[in-house]
User: Fold this.
Amino acid sequence: MIVTQADVMVTSPGRNFVTLKITTDDGLVGYGDATLNGRELAVASYLRDHVATLLIGRDPHQIEDTWQYLYRGAYWRRGPVTMAAIAAVDVALWDIKAKAAGMPLYQLLGGASRTGALAYGHASGFELPSLFDSIREHLELGYRAIRIQSGVPGLDTVYGVAKSPAMGERYDYEPARRSAAPTAEQWDTRAYLRHVPTVFEAVRNEFGPELPLLHDGHHRMTPIQAAKLGKALEPYDLFWLEDCTPAENQEALRLVRRHTTTPLAIGEIFNTAFDYQTLITEQLIDYVRSAVTHTGGITPMKKLFDFAAMYQIKSGIHGPTDISPVGMAAALHLDLAIHNFGIQEYMRHSPETLEVFRTSYTFTDGLLHPGEQPGLGVEYDEDVADKFPYDPAYLPVNRLLDGTVHDW
Ligand SMILES: [Mg+2]
Assistant:
């Protein structure tokens, strides 16, 4: 079997997705997600202009060799654009291999280690009543673990907090705006640090001690601020505190760790295992947050999780709606197979997105399952996709109240 064609497809059913389709002379087709939110066309070009022709004639079964060929062969290593492009190739080849085997992909990764993957959803509200409504809505949808993001007094816009929806609408927070430039959000870390513990106290009082609660700091704190927040949240027994400091500085987590027993999760903007070396070997985190789509695919993610397992660190794969259903399916096959699974982020895609991507994964009683279709279990409807042309979108920028650019 050889690869005969590699096509890059861009569609925007409510948001932009880049998908790689690899076709073989046996007629098998594999899909990979190459979506890099806000920089989509850079990855599309990388694949179209620099990778697609290299794949023609290759044996699609040689996944490890193809991965190394693209990673080492480019000379310029790592980076989100490169690693998203390699991820798309890797996932598409795993899709083909599993289809050739007539098995769902998780069987090739060692088979199921559990009946399903515990998922967490995103609840949010500017005030406690709307936050409580959002939590109740997620519980009714079947979620058994919930991320809590709240408004902060004095700030008009806050990361992760949806505008209060009209009756019957979803509480989704969608940061990417379709406009010619990024929108600006505001930030005040001291106001945030004062407010967040009161929110978790109220949520625990209302919903009890058992519900796993998560929170995302979205890279905004200094190490000592993060340590302070982790310590303040200890009475509320968080499942994790995510991205408490900007992740480039791995050593920062030593300081945070010294001061708090709140579990720490990090890594959604990392793109290789090397970004975790200090964090894992010094046991400075509890959960690895990488996305399959942004970390080079299934091949390196399996190695990364096996490395983390030696230090009792678990998975928490990144899964917002800018991870396409192809990327989500790839995550679910890993979730089911690896031993050190922790939790899976899961936001539901829009109906328009699910018209383009026909999925076979399921969400039942709080657990996701990739389904039993051979391969990833996702089909891409090109005719429907063509109805949604690319629409430029940017993630917001973040400024302190005095106008200083801050981490978003
Ligand atoms: Mg996050």
Q: What stands out?
A: The first strand starts at residue 3 and ends at 11.
